[in-house]
Amino acid sequence: MPSLLELLTPVLLRVDAEGGLEGADAPSRAWLAGHEPSDRSLARLCGAAEPAALVAAQGPWRALALPDGAYLVSGSAWQAGDAIAGRLAKTSLQDKQVLLNVMPAAVADEIATRTLQPKAYRESTIMFIDAVQFSRLAARVDPVSCLKQLDFYFSLFDQVTAAFGVEKVKTLGDAYMGVAGVPHRRAAHDRSPAAASDWSSALRPCATDPCRHRAARTTPGSC
């Protein structure tokens, strides 16, 4: 969610001796042009009949007297309604994407719509996959190559687990954790991780790839 300051536009106006207004910079000129001609007055925009009244003001608008008799008025104003709506919509989309990165889609939807309710699951199956002797592998290769290799496998695991209805929970170093039966209840929840782990353990891009994986799964009681 953007802060209030991010939804404000800094405005710098020049008020001549006759009371004429003009923007002192390009953003201020654009802001002023967005108002109806009848509203382009100091009283309408800043709430003061004369710029001198803003010299010692404590409000959002202040004025500085210039040697030529004009005044420089500075302050801030809300951005246009469509601009604010666009910022809020973009932020909302980004927040939703962050939720989808760490939460199941069904849970992310409930959080976004503030309808999240606690649920009880009588049973589920949890799956773990990790690299065999990963510490030795990490000691032999540079960190960038090691992370790229993990990213390669984790991306494959994402595809395999999604195909078998296993929900990814998180990664822990070289380990990959998934669960079946949560948040969508399934009678045969133990079969999907079994198939997914068998496929994942067999994934190797080439015969010389030193990275091998092993999988384990467990079906706890009530959770």
In short:
The chain is built from seven helices and eight strands; from the N terminus they run ββααββααβααββαβ. The strands form two sheets. The protein has a four-stranded antiparallel sheet with strand order 2-1-4-3. With 223 residues, the chain is an alpha+beta fold.
What do you see in this structure?
The protein has 223 residues and is of the alpha+beta class. It folds into 3 domains: 4-79, no CATH class; 83-112; 125-218, 2-Layer Sandwich (Alpha-Beta Plaits), CATH 3.30.70. Helices cover 37% and strands 22% of the residues. The chain has helices at 26-33, 42-46, 81-102, 105-112, 134-140, 143-163, 191-201; strands spanning 8-15, 21-23, 62-65, 71-78, 125-131, 167-172, 175-180, 213-218. The protein has a 4-stranded antiparallel sheet with strand order 2-1-4-3. A 4-stranded antiparallel sheet has the order 6-7-5-8, with helices on one face. A hairpin with a 2-residue loop joins β6 and β7. α6 packs antiparallel against α7 (191-201). It is elongated. The two termini are 34 Å apart.
